[in-house]
User: What shape does this take?
Amino acid sequence: MLQVPVRDQSQASTKAVILVGGPSRGTRFRPLSLDVPKPLFEVAGHPIIHHCLKAVTKVPDVREVILVGYYDESVFRDFIKDASKEYPQLRIVYLREYTALGTAGGLYHFRDAILKGKPERLLVLNADVCCSFPLGEMMKLFEEKDAEAVILGTRVSNETATNFGCIVSDSHTKRVLHYVEKPESHISNLINCGVYLFATECIFPAIRSAIKRRTTRPRLLSYPSSDNLESSFIATGDDEDAEKSEVLRLEQDILSDLADSNRFFVHETKDFWRQIKTAGSAVPANALYLQKAFQAESSELIAPSATIVPPVYIHPTASVDPTAKLGPNVSIGPRVVIGAGARVKDSIVLEDAEIRHDACVMHSIIGWSSRVGAWARVEGTPIPVGSHSTSIVKQGIKVQSITILGKECGVGDEVRVQNCVCLPYKELKRDVANEVIM
Ligand code: GTP
Assistant: This one.
């Protein structure tokens, strides 16, 4: 049975969990997730989860960050090794779910490890969001209101709100009155950003109540705990049902219950926020993180000049001809070669890629070791400021607004590629537009 932790002020009192998912998630991130797990994909010169981790390091009393997911153990080994060197004050570990347990199921499964050291608060971050992570402000609200939970919220247009988890709140007290995940009709344009702060003594009992409710339903298996893991696999003769029954999601199964308490609050951020779901959404995420770094006068960025329109990140091992013009919102990866007179704008160019002389790359992602020929044009369509979608309708067809070349693709000299997604290892020898090239 779960022990309610005894508060001990001498211990570090906040732990953080970053939910990284697993290989069966991130399918909308293809073709890029075919070659790298989405949380490790680099935007603005760092893996997506590095941006989450960096935000967590700014919260003074966090000493431990737990990545929870169901990727193989080896996937995060190097990342954790490097991050532990960069942030020696932090203990960073990866805990692997034996199957996808859902955003709440993973937390509950590893509750003993999370509650070790008796943390009072638990920060939970979805790995697939890009934002300024105002964790300090969330902590402040948490303390002021003596909250059980604080959620980060942001306003979106009324038309798009129902694609997200929607929060109805009291604008004066900031109390969450209702929470509905992807409601059928409009209830609010304040949406869930996937960043939470929970009182540990409340979140685990809340998950346990949700599990109890489920076990009273017929045909569903009891939820596995860390100590009855094996017995939870007792056969029902239907593995798929068994798996589904173990999935428990914060969004669908827990947050609406928390709203029934009087101590669930929302911190509304006015700063940037985007989801990183589709591969194309890495481009706006890259732009937003680069702009943030530029505002913070980060030394990682290249100084503005006649050929550098900030913000631009160039890996130190990349070779960029001085006559090439780069920016704004460009990240150039390790060992990339950019030829004379090339133009790159609003794009990510990944490791070992080459852009030959006088080529133009805009609103695109150039995959690892891909080649863009001389005078070629690889371009997408700009995503309107504030838009949360990376698709557009062209000639009656829904296409990706960002052009993506997978790993080791080739674009011939003078070839034009527009609004295409190109799977790895393809050679494009003629002009293409609005296509998925398989
Ligand atoms: P939709 O947004 O509803 O389309 O679903 P999604 O699968 O794209 O993302 P979801 O909102 O379910 O996931 C939010 C975050 O939690 C992402 O960073 C996922 O990688 C992560 N996540 C999702 N499911 C699991 C899970 O079963 N276990 C763990 N550890 N993380 C998960």
